[in-house]
């Protein structure tokens, strides 16, 4: 019913082959690769994906201060837009359908100028990047991050307003359950509100650990996705408890913990799907 993947950058500085081997072991369909188009070896990655029988479902953009689509500085915006375009090229080369975009970077708690000006900057940046993505038949998926990580787009209603103002067919929305646990009053209603734009989902529990290890009730979420005939991937994005999630990418983690979380996440999703549909999830 769903294609399951996991974000590779959550495994820290682990080599990509080790990550792909883990995903194959626990029955995943694909991987979401970090948006680092300037360092990845595309041909080597293609060979590894083929070797382990996995697809690249998506590219997770990494939005630092130097990649700020809303910046008041034109040179920063220009570099940010080019970065998204380069991620689109990366996605196209690897057969991925989606590139995740965050309008204002992690760590930006307030505007450099005004919120309205930076909103307009984000709209213009996404128009340009979105038109390029459309030419490559790639979706840009706007991700709303919680108020403690950034300021401009914190919930799905705001992401919807942004996508509508951009008004480019390739600019869609993704839903991240960790951020939704903080910002949304109702998972179900939020998903229904953005349904026409929903192309991607990230799964983590309220603790940001693997699904099933915290307090999130995922059953209504999965039931709603099934009812909405959601066609995108279900991507696991569990993380260690750090204030800045990008710090995880520079840390060496425990392979035992990675194994536990990777297995637990997909088992929890498949258990829920089976409970709802009465059939085992492949």
From TrEMBL:
Claim: Isomerase is one of the keywords in the record: yes
SUPFAM superfamilies xrefs: Xylose isomerase-like
Alphabetically ordered keywords of this record: Isomerase
Coiled coil: none
Gene Ontology terms for molecular function: isomerase activity
Pfam families given in the database record: AP_endonuc_2
Family: Belongs to the hyi family.
Protein name, per record: Xylose isomerase-like TIM barrel domain-containing protein
The species this protein was found in: Paenibacillus naphthalenovorans
């Amino acid at each position: 019913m769903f294609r399951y993947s996991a974000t590779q950058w959550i495994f820290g500085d682990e080599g990509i082959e080790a990550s792909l081997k883990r995903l194959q072991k626990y029955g995943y369909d694909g991987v979401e690769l970090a948006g680092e188009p300037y360092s990845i070896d595309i041909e080597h990655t293609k060979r590894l994906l083929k070797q382990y029988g996995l697809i690249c479902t998506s590219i997770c953009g990494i939005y630092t201060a130097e990649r700020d689509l809303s910046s008041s500085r034109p040179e920063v915006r220009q570099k940010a837009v080019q970065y998204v375009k380069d991620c689109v090229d990366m996605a196209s080369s690897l057969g991925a359908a989606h590139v995740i975009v965050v309008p204002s970077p992690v760590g930006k708690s307030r505007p450099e100028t005004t919120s309205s000006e930076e909103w307009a900057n984000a709209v213009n940046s996404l128009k340009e990047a979105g038109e390029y993505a459309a030419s490559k038949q790639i979706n840009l998926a706007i991700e709303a991050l919680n108020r403690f990580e950034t300021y401009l787009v914190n919930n799905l209603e705001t992401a919807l307003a942004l996508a509508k103002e951009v008004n480019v067919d390739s600019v869609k929305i993704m839903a991240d359950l960790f951020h939704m646990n903080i910002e949304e009053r109702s998972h179900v209603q939020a998903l229904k509100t953005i349904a026409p734009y929903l192309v991607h989902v990230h799964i983590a529990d309220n603790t940001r650990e693997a699904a099933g290890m915290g307090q999130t009730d995922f059953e209504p979420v999965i039931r709603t996705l099934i009812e909405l005939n959601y066609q995108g991937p279900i991507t696991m994005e569990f993380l260690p408890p750090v204030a800045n999630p990008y710090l995880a990418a520079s840390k060496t983690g425990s392979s035992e913990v990675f194994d536990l979380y990777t297995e637990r996440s997909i088992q929890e999703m498949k258990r829920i799907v089976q409970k709802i549909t009465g059939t085992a999830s492949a």
